[in-house]
Amino acid sequence: MISFEIKKQVVLIYLWLWWITSTNICVNATNDSLKPGDTLNSKSKLCSKQGKFCLQFSNNSIGSDFPCLFISVNVDYGTVVWMYDINHSIDFNTSVLLLDYSGVLKIESQNRKLPIIIYSSPQPTNNTMATILDTGNFVLQQLHPNGTKSILWQSFDYPTDVLIPMMKLGVNRKTGHKWSLVSDKFNLEWGPKEGELNIKKSGKVYWKSGKLKSNGLFENIPANVQNRYQYIIVSNKDEDSFTFEVKDGKFAQWELISKGRLVGDDGYIANADMCYGYSDGGCQKWEDIPTCREPGEVFQKKAGTPNVDNATTFEQDVTYSYSDCKIRCWRNCNCSAFQEYYDNGTGCVFHSWNSTQYVQVVADTFYNLVKPTKSAPNSHGT
Ligand SMILES: *[C@@H]1O[C@H](CO)[C@@H](O)[C@H](O)[C@H]1NC(C)=O
Ligand SMILES: *[C@@H]1O[C@H](CO)[C@@H](O)[C@H](O)[C@H]1NC(C)=O
Ligand SMILES: *[C@@H]1O[C@H](CO)[C@@H](O)[C@H](O)[C@H]1NC(C)=O
Ligand SMILES: *[C@@H]1O[C@H](CO)[C@@H](O)[C@H](O)[C@H]1NC(C)=O
Ligand SMILES: *[C@@H]1O[C@H](CO)[C@@H](O)[C@H](O)[C@H]1NC(C)=O
Ligand SMILES: *[C@@H]1O[C@H](CO)[C@@H](O)[C@H](O)[C@H]1NC(C)=O
Ligand SMILES: *[C@@H]1O[C@H](CO)[C@@H](O)[C@H](O)[C@H]1NC(C)=O
Ligand SMILES: *[C@@H]1O[C@H](CO)[C@@H](O)[C@H](O)[C@H]1NC(C)=O
Ligand SMILES: *[C@@H]1O[C@H](CO)[C@@H](O)[C@H](O)[C@H]1NC(C)=O
Ligand SMILES: *[C@@H]1O[C@H](CO)[C@@H](O)[C@H](O)[C@H]1NC(C)=O
After folding, report:
1. Fewest beta carbons within 10 Å, which of 179, 279, 314, 343?
2. Do 142 and 270 reside in the same domain of the chain?
3. Which segments constitute the Bulb-type lectin domain (predicted)?
4. Boundary of a domain, candidates 122, 157, 192
């Protein structure tokens, strides 16, 4: 009787273990890799082993101009961490990502005669595998007969405007390949010599993070927005790089937005759009203060719109944005305030001191230059 009970229990435990392992197998049996000959079409997706990230085709709804291949965090409307190829238009319905038998990774679609080649190895290789990893990196590897693997291509080498844990900024010293974020005219780069992050606009340094202090924080980044990160800086013969990890192990991302701001999970890490050539807070000085300006003078955001009079000037160029208007107003001694010309934030209107004396109260904002007072608030970083 007792032994029968025990047998029954053992059988039940076996059944239970079988159920657990078999259901686990089902959960784990995600397709995270393409082998030679495998394809990924626009109706399927490739997800990492633990399902953290997925690679799929976008139907034009993720902020790119064209349908493209992208990697996102695997939840509905998950953060897009990588996109390819935003320069070429593909037809979403017929798009296929293909790893062929000679080691070429490419996108084919009905509207294109020639495929978009993501990677083509110098010598044809048959034993390759393309895998989406739980870090969000999509890697094409060569499997050698001796059991080792080498990376032929990886998405982490081609960041877009987002930096995620383990993705690097800096330079690969072996290949000379540089890792940086790009957003419109802005770049986020790692300067290994000074050991500082910097944001450039059209090649000119607007903002620098300052040095990494002994408390593990960068000088010019507010402590409350960088407390959760552990920075990893590598400098050796192979690479000079910067990356971060999140102390609590959760996912985090830094996004460089087209205005020139670097946005982290807890707020703005850098506001390069606030920089106009003379002040601090990470902003770089690139010219002397115009004679008509005083140190400490700052632009303050105000409600309303100043009168337009015969001294008001307009810049209708749509490539001008907030920071361009600010620099131009600062340099022009006739300018006392500025605002956007178009509703979408482009173009500039420059106002004289006189016209700021007649502010109409409308649902609008402008930026007014104010003289320093003893407790002058610094507009930077706000
Ligand atoms: C993985 O993908 C391959 C090729 O697309 C397919 O043949 C296979 O059935 C898939 N396996 C699973 C477990 O989905
Ligand atoms: C993709 O977008 C196009 C155009 O917006 C739409 O016609 C089509 O139904 C969409 N396809 C899917 C699978 O969502
Ligand atoms: C897209 O075009 C830009 C500018 O020509 C180039 O720098 C970039 O490498 C291209 N991206 C891809 C994925 O080909
Ligand atoms: C793509 O496929 C969707 C759904 O099958 C269809 O509604 C749509 O018209 C197709 N778009 C094109 C451009 O063929
Ligand atoms: C690739 O390798 C497999 C296995 O060794 C072989 O069966 C196949 O013919 C090879 N294909 C090509 C195109 O070389
Ligand atoms: C394995 O083979 C590859 C390619 O032939 C070679 O580069 C690598 O050094 C080998 N690794 C070991 C540990 O033998
Ligand atoms: C000052 O502004 C007012 C209102 O915009 C305008 O009527 C006046 O002509 C301006 N004065 C000068 C000297 O520009
Ligand atoms: C603008 O008009 C005022 C008043 O008519 C005049 O005094 C001033 O010189 C004018 N300014 C310019 C820049 O033409
Ligand atoms: C400033 O205003 C004066 C007088 O209206 C004008 O002559 C001068 O060209 C203006 N300067 C700039 C830089 O616009
Ligand atoms: C902003 O608006 C202007 C005028 O409507 C337009 O020409 C320009 O392309 C727009 N720029 C952006 C970035 O949307």
Report:
1. 343
2. no
3. 31-153
4. 157
Residue pair 54/72 in contact by the 8 Å Cβ criterion: yes
> What pLDDT is attached to residue 380?
43
Residue 11: pLDDT band with limits 50, 70, 90: very low
Residue at 293 is within a domain: no
| Cβ < 6 A, ligand 10 pocket | 318, 342, 344, 346
| Global confidence as pTM | 0.75
User: How far is Cα 104 from Cα 125, in angstroms, rounded to an integer?
Assistant: 8
Question: What CA–CA distance (Å, rounded) separates 243 from 165?
Answer: 7
Mean pLDDT of 91-101: 94
Rounded Cα gap, residues 339 and 20, in angstroms: 63
Task: Give the residue, out of 38, 126, 129, 142, with the most ligand 5 atoms within 8 A of its beta carbon, to mutate for a pocket test.
Answer: 126
Any atom of ligand 3 within 6 Å of the Cβ of 65:
no
Q: Let me know whether 40 and 126 are in one domain.
A: yes
Residue 330: domain span:
298-370
**How many domains, in total, are found in the chain?**
3
Tens-digit pLDDT profile for residues 123-178 = 899 899 999 999 999 999 999 999 999 999 999 999 999 999 999 999 999 999 99
What is the distance between the alpha carbons of residues 64 and 326, in angstroms, rounded to a whole number?
Answer: 28
